[in-house]
Amino acid sequence: MLKVCKFGGSSLSDEEEFKKVKNIVRSDDSRRIVVVSALGKRNSKDYKVTDLLYLTYQHLKYKVDYSELFMQIKNRYLQIEKDLQIQADLEKEFGQIEAKIAEGTISEEELVSRGEYLSAKLMSVYLGFDFVDAGSLIHFDYDGKVDEKETLKSISEAAANHHNLVVPGFYGSYPNGKICLFSRGGSDVSGSYMAKGSHADVYENWTDVSGFYMADPKIIENPRRIKEISYAELRELSYMGANVIHEETILPLQDEGIPLEILNTDHPEEGGTLIKKETPDKTHLITGITGKKGFIALTFLKAKGADKLESILSVLNVFKNFEIPIEHIPTSIDSFSVVIEKSKIEEKFYDIIAELKKLPDILTISEDDDIALLAVVGRNMVKKTGTSGRILSVFGQEKINIKLIDQGREEINIIIGISNADFNKSVQALYQNFSGEKI
Amino acid sequence: MLKVCKFGGSSLSDEEEFKKVKNIVRSDDSRRIVVVSALGKRNSKDYKVTDLLYLTYQHLKYKVDYSELFMQIKNRYLQIEKDLQIQADLEKEFGQIEAKIAEGTISEEELVSRGEYLSAKLMSVYLGFDFVDAGSLIHFDYDGKVDEKETLKSISEAAANHHNLVVPGFYGSYPNGKICLFSRGGSDVSGSYMAKGSHADVYENWTDVSGFYMADPKIIENPRRIKEISYAELRELSYMGANVIHEETILPLQDEGIPLEILNTDHPEEGGTLIKKETPDKTHLITGITGKKGFIALTFLKAKGADKLESILSVLNVFKNFEIPIEHIPTSIDSFSVVIEKSKIEEKFYDIIAELKKLPDILTISEDDDIALLAVVGRNMVKKTGTSGRILSVFGQEKINIKLIDQGREEINIIIGISNADFNKSVQALYQNFSGEKI
């Protein structure tokens, strides 16, 4: 039995959090691979170390004195080292970083990566685990894509050579050995590769929440926790709503079917959300309700006699040329719409409209920029005929106007477009009607 | 006041029908332009003259004796001429056609067009109206598309030069004067151009039904007649369901907002369906229920990391290259479907799948070939919030599984995919629940 445990910044903010981590790791012998983030906030007014490191680099870039800022970072690590009464040689580590800064040879990526590096140094000494640098495990190509084959090989070897180990999250190395970062939040993804490469039985992602909720706690008071969910459902939920984990976390786990568990470092006894390949929860009708505001729908009326498919293709090609991702393409007989996230089109909006107006296949273009998309997710919906109808009838009861519906083959998920102003009310109505329903 | 009246083949099948036509035309002085089809069936075992003419041409082509077949056609026209006791010189007309056949100089299009030509000759003498040949009014370019400018000019002149006139439907001429046909049923379109070119106040389309019904009378016993409908709604209804009028009929009328009335030659007193630019019926929630069986949905799961828009484009381009029209593109997060009429893909199915399987963006393709599409049409639906939900909840009540839903911006129409086996049951359930509902 092997568990890979990743601890996020909030689980590493001070001495107390480090102690909680040690208790968690020590309570289960199979927790032999630990991935850590940089130090997080100790309270709501505090800073994340990663943010401070980015800011330090900006100081270097504009040649503004960074010493006070860098001292804040240094003090946080040294304080924890002192409080935990361990010898992690952090003074020496900071000396090396400062020397590189002084030489002007440190890249932004390398400087920022030191947050995770120093966390891992501290944690490895504190746990008595081996330290293994992420630069020797996670291999990127020069485009910044993970070289999965090399990465899994290195991880597999490290897992064989070390009984237990701590590895920094968030980074790896280019083929020339220089540091390369994942996108923000990427320590989750580091953990996924560690789990895959070491053939772990489970990947535990320890954070400051006890898993996922059926709906946004900002909209629903005390929403029900999702105890078990499938990869696919999670991806659908996180695609449209707030992310607890990095979007790319699931991909490496899927191939080997490694379950991912989201757990709370402050309340391990609460349990969390278990994410598996197959839908594990066979009881609840719907798994979650999510969504996002701020979409726009452009509706195209095709010209007399124009071919519908060709009209759609010519419109989609304009969006492709402008590199605008599109979400939905509701089609009617002589018209079709394209639904886009507003923030992704705003900057180029007038240029795109000008291009679209040139298309000979299109007669008119109309616009509705007040669209929120809601997704009701649940693999069990397909088992209960009529679920779509019942979900949609809630909108009628609440007098909420539906702007668009997209439901693909079978009732696996249903996406509903409404006015932004109706968003919270819709989530509340759906939650009230369906959160407790069993199949 | 000017009315253009088009009479279909069923209104021209024998002496009795000609008399009904005369009564209708004579009862209203504004009915000054009459468009006629070829003779239709006198009973269910009879033949349409147009079918017999096509068959005659096949005899010529394969050099098989056609004389008996042609005699049947000739006798039908001569019998009506005799029964009506008029002198339309049809013997001479048939002589000219037979001479051309003997010379081998008659084209298929010209031979087939003689059905309408002879009907118009007979009708013009019987009504005492001028005969004007369609070849001099409806002008096609060499691609078989109507040259609208020339056509409307010729019609406008003819309407000015003749107090009243009869014109054959279904055909016109190429720039070189040779006969060119509309697609089957195209006499409806001839009438539309006559109405537009003559600036008619209304275009009456006389046939054997008293207009359109809310649902197919083969599925619903005595469905409610649609008394008034907008062009757009009619197009939506006829696109998906059985056609009473030729699909292209509406287009010429739209620009000038000329209303079209579908009336019954056998029961003019019943009234019919009036089709106008704006939705005229402000009382009923839904205008009609229609649909078609025999669709297939192909669902594409995009490859890890592939761009959704690029994946959709690459798939749609394959369909474009094979000239396959597509109906809907339901989109989810990592997958999307393409819905196609089965009959339009069947022949090339395996070639298309082979091409689609080559696409690097696509991981898997799955297929559901048991889809019927239902459309609920009605411009008034948008005025009553919650209509979509109520419509869809009917499927739940009836335990009918919904395979897909496509509803574009606002609740103008909603398209629902179900199993073919559930089609009639669905239409019946929707009709029962909504046919009588007022807004």
Portion of residues in beta strands of chain A equals: 15-25%
Please work out how many helical segments of chain A DSSP would assign.
14
Structural class of chain A: alpha/beta
| Parts with pLDDT < 50 across at least 5 consecutive residues of chain A | none
Strand order of the largest sheet of chain A: 3-4-2-1-7-11-12-10
Largest sheet of chain A: 8 strands, mixed
- This entry's quaternary arrangement is homodimer
Q: What is the rounded Rg of chain A?
A: 25 Å
Quick rundown:
2 copies of one chain form a homodimer. Chain A is an alpha/beta fold. The first copy, chain A, has helices at 15-26, 49-61, 67-83, 90-103, 108-127, 148-161, 187-197, 231-240, 250-256, 308-321, 342-345, 349-357, 387-397, 423-434, and strands at residues 3-7, 31-36, 130-131, 165-168, 171-173, 179-181, 202-207, 212-213, 225-226, 228-230, 260-264, 273-276, 288-302, 335-341, 362-377, 404-407, 413-418.
